[in-house]
Amino acid sequence: MKLTFLGAAREVTGSSTLLEACGKNILIDCGLEQGPDIYENCDCPVNPADIDFILLTHAHIDHSGKLPYLVVNGFSGPIYSTEATRRLCGIMLLDSAYIQGLEAEWRNRKAARSGEPPYTPLYTVADVEKTLPLFESCRYEQQVTISDGIVARFLDAGHLLGSASVELTITEGGKSTVLLFSGDLGNVDRPLLRNPTKPKFADYVVIEATYGDRTHGERPDYIGQLTEIIQSTLDRGGNVVIPAFAVGRTQEILYLIRYIKDQRLISGHGDFPVWLDSPLAIEATNIYTDDMTEFFDAETLELVRAGINPVIFPGLMLSVTSDESRKINEDKTPKIIISASGMCEAGRIRHHLKHNLWRRESTVLFVGYQAEGSLGRIIQDGARKVKLFGEQIAVNARIETLRGISAHADLGILLDWLGSLSPAPRRVFVNHCNDEVCEVFAKSVTDKLGFAAEAPYNGAEYDLAADRLVVPGNMIKIKKKTGATRSSAAFERLLAEGRRLLEVIERNRGGANKDLAKFANQINALSDKWDR
């Protein structure tokens, strides 16, 4: 029995872990990397066609985004997930393919002008359509025999609708071993979702630690914060612009606004309009309003049983087309605008920022994490001007952040979840977090719980039967780019000469070994001279 870490090892995205057991190759998650790549990646040691099953913890693209790529390259086995995850993947993977198609068009126009080879996207919409029929839905707590000697069970992870921790019981040679993959664990007492289910036993645990070095603090008054921001902004005659991730965070915000409207907490503005301007968010919201009672918390279930839709309310307006989106800012009525992307890096939110950032009467409200370097983070950190669509826009609007609404468990919740295991697991593997956080959290697990814990590198292989590390993985960090982002004419010439050198090397294929060795030594000496 062997475990290989292929993604989110000392990094936050691209989750993927390979388990080899009972003669089968099993992949737990298959995510796209999003954001900076810190460590050089190792290739999967198994061809996609030789992977027997995939177990998916949830629908976020950093856990599911490479599924169609595997299908393109030969995978044809079942993909086990909850029903909500299956439905959400139906829209999120199609959206991912659409975005990749747009990027391919842009790159290929550029390549045609520069004489570069054409760019091929990772997968297409057609590839997603081949992937979706492979999904097989599982219920929480249900034991599913996926092969002789392999039984899976999904536990509520409380992170996203349908998110799960995956428990695998492997029986080889008459001996059973339990492996537990946390997936992304959720924060507690959030709108719509239940708290993460605490596990009872596992021999080995793979746990995320996105916030493994901090606590969220005392739970804030979401309703009070949001009510004050809406009231004061509408009183000034402005708009509340909310950049929000289309799946998960958008529905939580709609839940809170529904409550505010229902309790009539805003005065003087009647049934103020709320625009949801994101086709993906609208599709996801429709899934939340479908027959998803299995995944809701008790408070939300109570609403549903009373005939109340938890995320739909009077005054909610849905914008699908570009024309509908443009008309939102033409209407001068004070309103709430919820749009994607959550970090303001793309999508319709950028148009709404262009029309509202310069207005002192408007408010931009951040309700999710803003990565370093993203437009959202730049605005959040106090920039006085930002560039949008080639135009400098003054930041005069009120900038606010709804604190404490994170979808991820913090240090205390993670340790509490792990601490429910008895007896102690043989080993805890920490992943899905920044390099430094991995080290900090692994130490916390050992110091506070007394569990053996470590943070594997990308490509690390563990022989679980012998409980030992077989391959240490890739500890080489990718060098960060420094200096100006815009290449000078001299640098462009250097790149062109580099490409010419590759062509010369290729033309020497099959040459005498003595000549090739001399050529290699010359290139090596040149590289040593300029490697700085």
Structural write-up:
34% of the residues lie in helices and 20% in strands. With 532 residues, it is of the alpha/beta class. It has 2 domains: 2-215 and 407-471, Ribonuclease Z/Hydroxyacylglutathione hydrolase-like (Metallo-beta-lactamase, Chain A); 222-401, 3-Layer(aba) Sandwich (Rossmann fold), CATH 3.40.50.10890. A hairpin with a 2-residue loop joins strand 9 and strand 10 (175-181).
Brief synopsis:
The protein has 532 residues and is an alpha/beta fold. The chain is 34% helix and 20% strand. The strands form four sheets. It has an eight-stranded mixed beta sheet. Strands 7-8-9-10-11-20-21 form a seven-stranded mixed beta sheet, with helices on one face.
